Amino acid sequence: MDKLIPVTQPFLPPLEAFLPYLEQIWESKQVTNGGPFHTQLEAALCDYLGVEYLSLFSNGTLALITALQAMKVTGEVITTPFSFVATTHALHWNGIRPVFADIDPVSLNLDPQKIEAAITPQTTAILPVHVYGNPCEVEAIERIADIYGLRVLYDAAHAFGVRKNGQSVLNFGDMSVLSFHGTKIFNTFEGGAIICRDAKTKRHIDHLKNFGFADEVTVVRPGINAKMNEVQSAFGMLQLQYVDQIALARAQIADRYRSAFRGVEGLLMHEVPAHSTRNNSYFPVRITDDFPVTRDELYDRLRTASILARRYFYPLISEFPSYRGLPSAGAANLPIATEISRQILCLPIYPALDIQSQQRVIDVVLAASGVAQASAALTQTAEFPPVEAV
To answer: Hey, what domains does the chain have and what are their CATH numbers?
Structure first.
């Protein structure tokens, strides 16, 4: 039986590279509560990402929940149904009513025109998602927020290292939230971060993620336990040494897919505008009516070949029982998101995906499309360069 090929797979540096970090933690006897690796990683990520204030979290969902708390968001928040369900769960856990708006058919992000049409007197904020790391129309969203006096929190779970017009997308809005889950380009096993605009807000966030403690005897507000521990932080410091080479490996895989699938009728590849960087966090394709088989039939063929492609995001968040009763959740309000969720398929992409395994993926897709042979250019491509510490 062929080996399983998942959509994503965490990059794990050699064990011997991690052991010195664990020894330092063991010697320091500080395993959490803002230890040295935690402090180092916050500073290193600020430098790498081009942001000024960043607070580490144990996972991205707690970071989203805490960011909404820090911003004192209430009432209704306009968001996308085309995302991972944690985006909307964070609203629910804060007692906020999600209002779904439709997405743009090209970027797959919230459509600014639909945002404006969804605003009511109860609207207090907008929660867009940089889907697959593709930047939202941040300028248009900022104009809407300014006109209506709304806050903006970006779910940037997929957008590590992404820039728009030369600037980090994390610097837009009031705050942005990253995920460092094992499936992400940069990971700390589990983890996340909030990016904010000033030192005062960072102090507020840091209080919230540590039970509200300002010092040993002072609790200034009701907080939560969402701190990143020293083992996660140390792993992040190690991962950061490899992240540029991880990005290069992903880019090579994406280029091979694009070469192999160019011109295949009924298979649409996701494009990123020229003014934005592409981080290749996922490789989504859309299987339209012009393809010989349906998206779900292709999904089943890939699964039969031990290729674990993912219909990501399907179903829409608005179709889950917890949210489908909302007035904004109906398919008539979300025609584009509804259509795309039934077409989308994410193909495997991760640094350890070798050429032979990628060729298996391509062969199944091309066979389903009716194309007899795979791309000769792909099969002649050299192996990945080794992913080593810099």
So the answer is: 15-238 (3.40.640.10), 243-379 (3.90.1150.10)
